[in-house]
Amino acid sequence: MDEQVYDPQALQDKWLPRWERLDAFRMGEDPQDPRPRKYMLDMFPYPSGDLHMGHGEVFAIADVIARYWFQKGYNVLHPIGWDSFGLPAENAAIKRNAHPAEWTYKNIETQANSFRRYAISFDWTRRLHTSDPEYYRWNQWLFNRFFERGLAYRRGGLVNWCPNDQTVLANEQVVAGRCERCGAEVVRRELTQWYFKITDYADRLLDDMEQLEGGWPERVMTMQRNWIGRSTGADVVFEIEGHGPVTVYTTRPDTLFGATFFVVAADAPLAEQIVAPDRRAALDDYRSEVAKLSDIERLSTEKEKTGVFLGVHAINPVNGERIPVWAADYVLSDYGHGAIMAVPAHDQRDLDFARKFGLPVQVVLHTGMADPGETGIATPGEGTLVNSGPLDGLSKAGAIAKIIEILETQGKGAGAVNYRLRDWLLSRQRFWGTPIPIIHCADCGEVPVPDDQLPVTLPDLRGEALAPKGVAPLASATDWVNVDCPKCGGPAKRDTDTMDTFVDSSWYFLRYLDPHYEGGPFEVEKAKQWGPIDQYVGGVEHAVLHLMYSRFFIKVLYDMGMVTFTEPFMRLLNQGQVINQGKAMSKTLGNGVDLGEQIDSFGVDAVRLTMVFAGPPEDDIDWADVSPAASQKFLARALRVMGEVSSAPGADFETGDIELRKVTHRTIDEVTRLIDTYRFNVAIARLMELTTAARRAIDSGSGPADPAVREAAEALAVMLSLIAPYTAEEGWERLGHQATVAKAGWPQADPALLVQESVTCVIQVAGKVRDRVDVSPDISDGDLEALALASDKVQAYLSGTPRKVIVRAPKLVNIVP
RNA sequence: GCCCCCGUAGCCCAAUGGCAGAGGCAAGCCCCUUAAAAGGGCUCGAGUGCGGGUUCAAGUCCCGCCGGGGGCACCA
Q1: Angle ∠(A222,A228,A234) on CA atoms, nearest 5
Q2: Which residues of A spanning 600-619 put their CB closer than 7 angstroms to strand B?
Q3: Smallest Cα–Cα separation from A397: which of A263, A254, A200, A557?
Q4: Which of chain A's residues 643-682 bind strand B, using a 7 Å CB cutoff?
Q5: What is the CA A687 to C1' B17 distance in angstroms?
Q6: Environment class of residue A496 by beta-carbon count within 10 Å: exposed (0-12), middle (13-18) or buried (19+)?
Q7: Residues 417-476 of A near strand B (Cβ < 7 Å)?
Q8: Residue from A337, A349, A419 nearest A378 by CA
Q9: What is the DSSP letter of A42?
Q10: Interface pTM, i.e. ipTM
Q11: Contact A287/A306 with Cβ under 8 angstroms?
């Protein structure tokens, strides 16, 4: 190899095959292995074509941490796999009249090759693909366990339907009324679907977040808290005349005396049950009107309140007042009890409705604000209860406690908790996913496929057979669908839905421990050793999707006794996006940057370095603001320094130039701290300085034969190996060492070389710098103060005795005249 | 509308309440070279979005604005 020019392609061609032979990143399997374990997990990719710039960033960042752990001597698990079920494969298959597996596995190979070239420190022996029957078999096994525990169930109800993808979606997959995948407007449909009972775990999902404090970004936890949306209040029973008791949920039972009307969700069955005969036509009209609205229109806060009087009245349980019952779409049928008591004085939504339809406003809480009936502004805050019988004079909190007590003794209500979180709708009417292992039998009902008959593999459908026709594609595979009931042996049919692919990703990190294990989804003993994950790295787009589902799965597995921890990911790092010219890369904008092309132009190391050096890992990287060419220059410079060292390996560093040695050890010390705190960009800046210092020593200092230069270059090689493995490996070889630098061991800073024999102390008068003196780092406050006051430059600004002297030895003295 | 984060040289970014600049890009200059490229070196540059406050001392803490980004938004 030509040592004069930096040729990244040649470095890659040289080292990649050697590394493959060394296989340095295998997890240690020996349970007696004394090394402490570390588990690094990158969010596994979906195989849509080749790796893109976003992958380039996230894997580069995670690899710095993983390689750091390897250098520090941990037993590291850093696996890779593919989230390979999903719609794009299916759509591609329809278009090309092919099988989704062809497209999927071809892309996986492409990405795997790119990962190898990108030099990520994976243990390739743990590779898995969720679309392999040996993987999804365990989705089905887990489904059976959930089913046994009553955590998987089937029910009818209004669901979100994506007309473009022709499937239902979970609540989490609907963003502002649109399909999270394709952006199509979601419509509501009445369908019978499978659900996971995640709501049973709402409290634990919320309360266990305590364990993640400090380890997860605050905003992700906020999003999850909002999503779960726990609220406390009371259930209150109103009697509806001519119908019977109806319960409502309220967070403000203290305002019960201010309820002036009652609203049921227009789409709730209750509305048609209670409507007066002469109002039925009006309700039907209103309901069809509401049904026409999209979610986006319905949820708009700009929209005026609508509703219809149902011709019946409800009786307020505490004062016997008759209040009219309305139906409206601002009340949701699937939250609380689908009906509310309306207190317009203290709730803006109710007030808007009251003003629209001329309903009375009754103030029951003095807040010091103007009358809501006059201003149209509800007063939801604190205050003193009025017009409320036994509650009068109480505070809001006092009244809430008191009214709950009253309701409970009268049997008219009780304290209650509600959640925004809904159960996880998991069935999908598409092909390329895990078949739900249920057989429907006319006599036995829903019968799980026995574990020993798993996996239920997908039938061989391709091309046109996969095209959406409003029913699940699996329904057309009649040979597959028609089976004998496992219970009674009679004729029965398989469930034709497949599972949401978020099921696949909810537990994949446990499968990595032994991806071919046949005794269960994972080996319980290994999960005990390796879980939970020490560091998870991935995009923030999964804040309430994958991350919530995984947390739920782990809690269920914990209850099953299969894992010993209740949270899967102890630390979470959300890397930023790679953008270009201030905007997300997109085909329509034509501002896309291709990772492969960047690598071809600048080399793997320069691209990785650029990703990590651009800024803090959470920040977006604007590719227009960074310079992979400059990264390449630095790497070339570093490699030249390493190549110019002329002392022999093993040279005694102690005999080297002390000043350079101090720089080296200070750098080691700082870089260690910076990597520990994930400030990689700053760490790289320190490595650049070390490189410059070594360069100077070679050119105009102690020369290339000085052992201190070797010490600096060797430290540089090891530290640089986290970011630029090819360059570091080549430099390591030129320094006379055997591969691989990745396992050379993290350098140790010698504390003796970190102490300074003098530091510059700043002397301020009234906060302005007036003098500097070189002092010993362990000078006493008293000595330093005396020294400062003795300065002529300082004295020039003083007249008489200073009022105050602040001494911060050894760095600063501030004299207040 | 509510909540959170961020505003430091032309640009990207550093700075446990203690000298505003570590590093990089760009710009300019010098050395090396027959020349260019590559390489080596030097220089330039902001008083920290605006206005108050706390403090001996504020980029850092507090309050109010302005600008940018994100989250939530009929969940009773």
Answers
A1: 120
A2: 614-616, 619
A3: A254
A4: 679, 681-682
A5: 29
A6: buried
A7: 418, 420
A8: A349
A9: E
A10: 0.95
A11: no
Tokens 């009818």 — which residue? A156
Q: Mean pLDDT of successive 10-residue segments in chain A (817 residues)? A: 76 96 94 95 95 95 97 97 94 92 97 97 97 98 98 91 86 82 83 94 94 91 92 95 94 95 93 94 92 73 85 95 95 92 94 94 90 89 91 93 95 94 92 96 96 95 84 90 95 96 97 96 96 94 91 97 97 93 83 93 95 94 92 94 93 93 94 95 95 91 91 96 96 94 96 86 84 85 87 81 84 86
Q: Count H helices and E strands in chain A, helices first.
A: 27, 34
* Alpha carbon distance, N-terminus to C-terminus of chain A: 68
DSSP reduced 3-state for A344: helix
Å between A621 CA and B7 C1'? 17
- What CA–CA distance (Å, rounded) separates A676 from A673? 5
Cα–Cα distances in Å, from A569 out to A37, A199, A202, A380, A790?
15, 21, 18, 39, 58
Å from the A628 CA to the B43 C1':
25
Q: How far is the CA of A771 from the C1' of B58 (A)?
A: 21
Residues 700-759 of A with CB under 7 A from strand B: none
CA-CA-CA-CA dihedral for A525, A529, A531, A533, to nearest 10: -140
- A363/B59 CA-to-C1' distance in Å: 49
Chain B footprint positions (protein CB, under 7 Å): 4, 11-15, 18-20, 22-26, 38-41, 56-58, 70-76
Surface-to-core class of residue A423, CB atoms within 10 Å of its CB (0-12 exposed, 13-18 middle, 19+ buried) = buried
Polymer length in residues for chain A:
817
Whole-angstrom distance, CA of residue A486 vs CA of residue A144: 14
Which amino acid would we find at residue A544?
V
- Its pTM stands at 0.94
